[in-house]
Automatic annotation (TrEMBL):
GO terms assigned for molecular function: cobalamin binding; metal ion binding
Origin species: Formimonas warabiya
Cross-referenced InterPro entries: Cobalamin-bd (IPR006158), Cobalamin-bd_sf (IPR036724)
Taxonomy, superkingdom: Bacteria
Protein name: Methylmalonyl-CoA mutase
Occurrences of domain B12-binding (ranges): 450-582
Signal sequence bounds: none
Length: 582
């Protein structure tokens, strides 16, 4: 195996787990789970206890993800949404608070990062108020466990009465530029999971779509990855966990099959948190988005009718793809979901559940192969597979592409992405394949048109699918491609330009930093006197200071000399012009 580890610290120098567990015992003795208004109303002590009661009664929970810049605005809007839904005969079970990324790092490091558009809790009182707004149970995941500030976030969350906290997957993918605390992050994350394991009824949450799951091409490998996360959190750290998914699941039946698959792995019977909405089908046509909302919520409700797992059905407002939704739009989404939950009773008896079970069994069998190959591979690399910290760090340093390439299942095919044909491709890979074929149909034969030309590709965030499309097109055109992966920094790009003498840089961006990123990269290229051009695609927008909305910055980016036409069909010609002149 020629596996490259991008090590950020020596995981062999992590503390012994006995030391970590000993410290957690002391912290747990000083921690008390708070009582939320939701717990008081339903006579329970944890969300898991409520979920088990609801499952037995056939009641389906509902979820919304919410979070505005200030605590006061967030509290006001949550209360308004709750009361308005109740007035209209609806309900909201739980609310996931969207925290800003600065919440992921210790307070003394927050000045090194620009504040984004999410919620920032600034006082202990605001933490304690999370569950005291209205009887809606709070859920924490963004920039909580898995981040450098994991332990403190977990402790404060538990004391506020939050008993479902994540996100396991964020450890592997969420980054905090300017704050390099990878060793501390790993130790803090281990302690946070272990702390959760000290309290009955707590749930460690993992949204697979936020982590490496976003970048695997095969659902079978994603299943094996879930086995790995469960091994780490439950078998080695003693907590109870559940999986969330859905952002990247467009196929309604695929959502049902995957839920059944995850439940088959749930030996502790831990109730689910929520199933996220399918946001890949959301566009700028709000009326069309109602079709996507209805499609995924109906499927999720049908699954809960057949096999209650406790997962709440999430409502994603139809404006989600274009801006931060208003409270009224959140309410409208829930009223739509209510109808889907009601009608799910009509569909459940007519689903071919035998076929669903068959597909589930394929994913589990193939997923287990991937899991076992990863474990064997880690041992071969000298990783202590009884130390969760070593495994967490090693997996992150290896990355999803190498994991899937070296250990993944699927028939080998050198022309396939990652040289393997997926057993069950993810919906995103299906979409990429379709888009790629459409691009090929719209362009003349491009084979050899970029022979001898070097291209750098990468993504500024976790979303690598746009990158994958242009990468496969560039390869077909004969280019030599240097794939820098996700969360690529301008500094990494400049270093690669120097090392490879590449002149064309293709970067995908979806995280609201298009202008600042382009400015930094262009300035860096000019400083080094490098003759390379940037082609930027995706969402050419920027989170503006003092505003919770990202605005289009295409003109400002183009003024820097950057190509931001967002035209996959034409980029081969653009690259040729960079090398040969227009």
């Amino acid at each position: 195996m020629n596996i490259e580890m991008k090590k950020r610290f020596d995981y062999k120098n992590l503390p012994d787990m006995r030391e970590i567990f000993g410290e957690v015992e002391k912290i747990a003795a000083e921690t008390t789970i708070g009582t939320t208004l939701f717990f008081q109303e339903h006579g329970v002590k944890t969300e898991a206890e409520y979920k088990r009661k609801a499952m037995a009664e056939g009641k389906i929970s509902k979820h919304s993800h919410m979070g505005w810049n200030s605590w006061n605005e967030t509290a006001k809007n949550v209360a308004y949404i709750y009361h308005e839904l109740k007035k209209r005969g609806s309900y909201l079970t739980r609310a996931g608070f969207i925290f800003d990324w600065v919440m992921g790092v210790p307070e003394e490091y927050r000045s090194r990062m620009p504040a984004g558009t999410g919620l920032i809790l600034k006082t202990p009182e605001e933490w304690k108020a999370l569950g005291q707004i209205v009887p809606v149970q709070p859920h924490l995941s963004d920039h909580m466990i898995g981040a450098p500030n994991a332990l403190e976030n977990a402790r404060l969350g538990l004391e506020a009465g939050v008993t479902s906290i994540g996100n396991v997957s964020h450890y592997f993918t969420y980054e905090y530029p300017g704050v390099e605390l990878e060793r501390e992050r790993t130790v803090s994350t281990l302690k946070a999971f272990a702390l959760m394991g000290k309290f009955d009824g707590t749930i460690v949450h993992s949204n697979l779509d936020d982590g490496f799951g976003n970048q695997f091409h095969d659902l079978a490998n994603l299943t094996g990855w879930a086995m790995m996360e469960r091994y780490l959190v439950e078998d080695l750290l003693g907590a109870s966990m559940t999986f969330c998914y859905g952002n990247l699941f467009s196929d309604p039946m695929g959502r049902i099959i995957f839920n059944m698959t995850m439940e088959a792995l749930n030996k502790k019977g831990t109730p689910g948190t929520m199933i996220f909405g399918n946001t890949i089908d959301y566009g700028l046509d709000f009326h069309r988005n109602y079709g996507a909302l209805s499609s995924f919520s109906l499927a999720d409700a049908i699954c809960q009718r057949h096999k209650p797992t406790g997962h709440a059905v999430a409502s994603v407002p139809v404006t989600e793809a274009s801006r931060i939704p208003t409270p009224e739009e959140i309410i409208e989404g829930h009223l739509c979901v209510d109808m889907m939950i009601e009608k799910s009773l009509c569909f459940e008896p007519f689903i071919n559940w035998e076929k669903v079970e068959s597909e589930k069994n394929i994913l589990i069998a193939c997923g287990r192969i991937f899991f076992e190959r990863m474990m064997n591979g880690l041992e071969d690399l000298g990783v202590d597979i009884t130390h969760p910290g070593e495994i967490f760090a090693a997996l992150k340093f290896i990355g999803p592409e190498q994991l899937e390439t070296y250990f993944g299942v699927g028939q080998r095919d050198k022309m396939a992405m990652r040289a393997k044909v997926p057993v069950r491709p993810t919906d995103m890979i299906k979409i990429i394949s379709q888009k790629r074929e459409k691009v090929f149909e719209k362009t003349p034969d491009i084979s050899g048109s970029l022979d001898g030309m070097k291209v750098i590709v990468g993504s500024t965030d976790i979303h690598d699918y746009g990158k994958e499309i242009v990468k496969t097109i560039a390869l077909k055109a004969g280019a030599t491609v240097f794939d820098l992966g996700t969360y690529v920094t301008p500094e990494e790009i400049i270093e690669t330009v120097i090392e490879t003498e590449s002149r064309a840089i293709l970067i995908s961006t979806y995280n609201g930093i298009a202008l600042s990123y382009a400015k930094e990269l262009v300035a860096g290229l000019e400083k080094e006197k490098l003759d390379a051009k940037l082609i930027l695609g995706g969402l050419i927008n920027e989170n503006q200071a003092g505003s919770s909305l990202a605005v289009d910055v295409t003109d400002a980016v183009r003024a820097l000399g950057v190509n931001c036409d967002n035209n996959a069909e034409a980029f081969v010609d653009v690259v040729r012009d960079i090398y040969l002149g227009s």
